[in-house]
Amino acid sequence: MAAFFLWGVLPVFWKQLDFLPPPSIIAHRTLWSLLFLSVILWLRRETRAVVAGLRTPRACGWHLMSGALLASNWLLYVWATLNDRILEGALGYYLNPFFNMLFGVLWFGERHNRAQLAAIVLALCGVAVQIPALKGFPWVAVVLAATFSLYAVVKKRSPLPSVQGLTVETLLLAPLAFGWLCFCSSGISDALGGTWPRALLLAATGLATMLPLVCFGHAARHIPLTTLGILQFIGPTIQFFIGWKLYDEAMTTTRLLSFAMIWAAIGIYAADAVRRERHKA
Question: Are 243 and 38 in contact (CB under 8 A)?
Fold first, then answer.
C-alpha cells in the first residue's frame, strides 16, 4: 500500500523536473538511487551479499533483465508525465494488475474462476474503447503495464532479497546512466540542473525512486501476484485524479467510459476476492 500510494503522487514530483529530458532524469534516478541504497546496505552490513550476488551469473542475469525492464518503464512513464499524458499512464497502471493475473497463470500456475476472467475481459474491452478516440493503439498504457508486470515476474524469480536485488539492478545500470550524463548532456552544469534548488530536486529522485521500489520488491517476493494486483489500483486512481483535476488533462466521454469499464472490472474482481477469502475462513 505504501508503494502504490507513493507512485500515485509521484507525477507531481516529476513535473518539477521538466528542465531536463526524460533520459537524463532516468540517469539521475539510477545514480542517486544507487547512492541511497549503498548507504542502507552499509548500515545493514549487507554489502558482502551484494558483492556475492554480482559474482553469481544467475543473479546477475535475472537482475540485468529486471533492471532493463525497470529502466524502460521509468523512461516511458516520465516521458508520458512530462508530455501531459498522466491519464494514459494511469490507464497503463490500471491494466497492470490484469497483466499480473495473466502472468501469474503463465508462470506460477495461479488459477482464475469465471468472475476473474470476466473482470479481465471487461478491462481489456475498456482499453479497446479508447482506440478509436486515440486514433491508434494506446501503446503507452499497454507498454507500461507489460514492462512493470514482467518486472514483478522477474523479481519473484530473483535469488536476492528486495534491497540487495534493487542495488544490483541499479549497479548494473549505473555505467550507462553515468555515460549518458557525461556524454549526452550539455555539460556538467546542465546535467546537474544548473542551480542548487534543481540539483537538490535531482538528488531527491533517488529517495523518490528507492522507497516505493523497496516496498514493492518486498511485496512481490512475499505475496501472490493476484493480491499484488488488487492493491495496485491505489496508484493509478490517485494518478487519474491528479491528471484530470490538477493538470486539466482532457476527460472525454470515451475516456470516461473506458475508465468506468475498468473500474467495473476492478469491482468484480475485488468482490470475488473478498468472497473467496470469507469462504476460506
Answer: no
> Which residue has cell 521509468?
74
pTM of the shown model: 0.83
Query: Does residue 73 register a pLDDT over 90?
Result: yes
Tens-digit pLDDT profile for residues 191-218: 566 678 888 888 899 889 888 877 887 8
pLDDT given at position 198: 86
Annotated domain spans of the chain: 2-280
The predicted-structure confidence for 117-169, as pLDDT tens digits, reads as follows: 888 888 888 877 877 766 667 889 889 999 988 988 888 777 787 788 888 89
Query: Using alpha carbons only, how large is the chain's radius of gyration in Å?
Result: 19
Are residues 189 and 63 in contact, defined by beta-carbon separation less than 8 angstroms?
no
